[in-house]
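I am still getting used to backbone structure tokens and would like to learn alongside you. To get us started, please write out a protein record for me. Start from the sequence, derive the backbone structure tokens from it, and show both lines together. Once you have written the record down, we can walk along the chain together:
***
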Amino acid sequence: MAGDSFFVVIEGIDGAGKTSIARTLTNILRQTLGENVLLTEEPHNESLMGAEIRSALRRERALEPVELAQAFALNRSNHLKSVIECHLQKPQAVVICDRYLLSSLVYQTRDDITMKDIYHINRWARVPDLTIVLKVSAHVAYQRMDERSKSARELFENDLPTRLRKYCAGVELLRRKGQNIITVDGDGELQNVVKDVLDALEDRAPPWLRIQPPLLL
């Protein structure tokens, strides 16, 4: 883990607001660090297997659970090599990633594929300096998804209570592996969630990462 770079992951179930938070956080940090702040996401469309994964999530293509888990691992490997690690080689560089390994632990486990199996497939993945998990109720998450889109839900956008339980288990597993993970209440209004995320980040960020709180959201 380089002292002059910072790798942040934003996690949460569908409807948690993580994409909005990731974008807002990126804009805030760019006020002081400019283009040294990179926003990216997983699955990464431009990386290996990205198009195939998106097609499977839209139910346009059928992949067996093991195939999907391996596809995500290949996508993550290429994403790390071609995007994340390249950017983090710059001095005072920040990468904000919308979803990462924790999402794989949650969404790719099945009765015959455990979290330990998924972790093993991804055991080489770079460890984030900080993972922020937005914790929301299933009720709020469903409301937000309904407001966001009236179209058919993607492959994993159902049975949110089960996803919530899996997130708790995934967080415990990664914490046992020594990963730095915090949870933030994501049920509130955007400006309140952003404030809590900034407070959490400021407590754990390196000294050079200066944060200019937004005047307006």
